[in-house]
Amino acid sequence: MPKIRVLVVEDESLVARDIQNMLRSLNYEVLGVVTSGEMALQRASTAAPDLVLMDIVLKGDIDGIAAQHHERLDGSGYPAGLKGGAILPEAQIIIVADVVEAMSSHRPYRPSHGIDKAIAEITQNKGVLYDAAVVDHCVRLFKEKNFSFE
Questions:
Q1: Which CATH class is domain 1-56?
Q2: What confidence tens digit (pLDDT) does each residue in 95-115 have?
Q3: Contacts for 22 with CB less than 8 Å, ≥ 6 apart
Q4: Which of 60, 55, 47, 77 is nearest to 8 (CA)?
Q5: Could you tell me which residues are beta bridge partners of residue 53?
Q6: Which candidate, 147, 122, 132, places its Cα nearest to that of 51?
Q7: Is 13 helix (H, G, I), strand (E, B) or coil?
Q8: Could you report the per-residue pLDDT of 43-90, keeping only the tens digit for each?
Q9: What is the dihedral of CA 82, 90, 44, 4, to 10 degrees?
Q10: Residues 45-58: pLDDT tens digits?
Q11: Which fold has domain 59-145?
Q12: pTM as predicted
């Protein structure tokens, strides 16, 4: 099973070391630690990580991200019926992650639909309800990198 490749962005060395150790214990491949977003962009362009783990301050945008996680690209979501570029990029990621996690998890009112149905949902609606690049990355994590929620 190929390891998921992670680039860590953290400016505090003790925190970075703890993050690296935790990721390695979970069988992730840590490509390295950089101390700024600019360095992360440079490193990511050559290292091609599957994930970039950052400790970032969103300065109020987190409210927008959380509020938009039920929006859809075609405007069929809620609460505001936002379309396409009006949805924050961070929210686009949360939207796909939320759908996959919700569909593949057991709920008190229904059994799990399973990861295959969740992946089928986002793939079928790629570019319609969900951002195509986000869907591609999500599918790659599950299919090529064998990611799981366990």
A1: alpha beta
A2: 999 999 999 998 888 999 999
A3: none
A4: 55
A5: 8
A6: 147
A7: helix
A8: 888 888 888 877 655 555 556 788 888 999 999 998 889 999 999 888
A9: -110
A10: 888 888 887 765 55
A11: Hypothetical protein af1432 (1.10.3210)
A12: 0.62
Residue where the block lists tokens 């390891």? 3
> Which residue type, as a one-letter code, is found at position 101?
E
Task: Say how far apart CA 93 and CA 141 lie, in whole Å.
Answer: 13
Tell me the three state secondary structure of residue 32.
Answer: strand
Alpha-carbon span 100 to 109, nearest angstrom: 17
Residue 98 CA from chain centroid, whole number: 9
Answer whether the bond into residue 79 is a cis peptide, omega within 30°. yes
Long-range contacts made by residues 20-27, C-beta under 8 angstroms, separation at least 24? 23/53, 27/3
State the virtual CA torsion across 89, 91, 97, 102 in degrees, nearest 10: -160
Each domain of the chain, given as residue ranges in start order, spans: 1-56, 59-145
| Alpha carbons 60 and 57: distance in angstroms, whole number | 9
Read off the amino acid at residue 38. E
Whole-number Å distance between alpha carbons of 84 and 51: 23
Contact status, residue 16 vs residue 32, Cβ threshold 8 Å:
no
- H/E stretch holding 7: strand 5-9
